[in-house]
Amino acid sequence: MTTAAAQEASPLPSLTGMRFVAAFLVFVCHACVLGYFHPDVASSLQTYAFTSGWLGVEFFFVLSGFVLTWSFFEGESRTRMWRRRLVKVYPNHVVTWFAALALAIWAGQSVDLVKALPSLLLVHTWLPRADLILSINVVTWSLACDLLFYLAFPFLYGLVRRIPAQRLWTAVAAVVAVIAVLPAVALAVLPGTPALPGQEMSLTQNWFLVSFPPTRALDFVLGILMARIVVTGRWIRLGWGPALLILVAAFGLQMYLWPTVYGLTAPVALPLALLIAAVAVADLKGRFSPFRSRPLIWLGTISYASYLVHFLVLSYSHTALGADRTWDTPSALFLVTALFGVTTLLAWLLTRFVEEPAMRAWAGARAVRPGPAPLPEARSPEPTT
């Protein structure tokens, strides 16, 4: 099979399945911290919950860079690419934003539309203000980062495209080094008070490392570099199994370092990038992958919608059942499982009746892109155009 044909025949389904795993980690995080479990149980789960949530979001940021690079073709115009991505993001976001607004009003919450509108436009994370970052639908802070990624992608890809293939791993090392140093920069430069409840960092430090779009663009660039490594045949012989073990070890380090600034994204950025690339290579070579089953792929397909609705389901269901209520562990697990079912149903409806029609109507036709260079067995010493 030719290289171009190989890529056209390999849409990397395992990465879609992995999207569900990441979205589920975020769901579990919020289910553990939104008051369903007895406080004693919740406190024991807190470290696992928060680090799982950070891991899930970090995965999406790195994956975005990888997937956009993989699906990009050299002849595609910036406007076409921007239109595809904005149509993918905004319809679901707008629908859930207004749903969240209605739910907030129903719950008797005070809503300041002046502070809420930036979140509708996905520009609400550019300032270290919790009342803006967490307004209306809390999870949309990550979409504000995604918006910058998509707008900057043609320019970032152009820069990465100029890096010789033999220097791509050096570029990865440089990006990872910057990600690792940023927590120290946050501690040295940004105010450390007032501290966030339960965390050894201030709102400003947390904002800079977690939700400030230019900072998180480093994760996105890491994904771009990893895709270029695979495309140019520079991938190392690392299977998804060893890559997963590396990630598990990094996750343990992340839990050990949490709730400090070093326990956010720095420990897991590179291991996640390695796992994404290793799983992609497994798909390309037709090797076994645990993320390629039909149920996982289907759940991954609706994961964006699931991410948007899950916090609303968890939060306002708790309000409806009693804002101050907690449950014993079996009852809490039953409730959370049922709410995961509700989240999945709503995510399917949102995907089926909002996202897919919007993509058909406004995203525009896709052109066929060229394929990548051969994988490591037939490695090319130079980038292939």
Automatic annotation (TrEMBL):
Residues that span the membrane, as ranges: 20-37, 49-73, 94-112, 132-156, 168-190, 210-231, 238-258, 264-284, 296-319, 331-350
Tagged with keyword Lyase: no
GO function terms (MF aspect): acyltransferase activity
Record keywords, A-Z: Acyltransferase, Membrane, Transferase, Transmembrane, Transmembrane helix
Keyword Hydrolase applies: no
Domain Acyltransferase: 14-352
The name this protein goes by in its record: Acyltransferase
Annotated source species: Microbispora triticiradicis
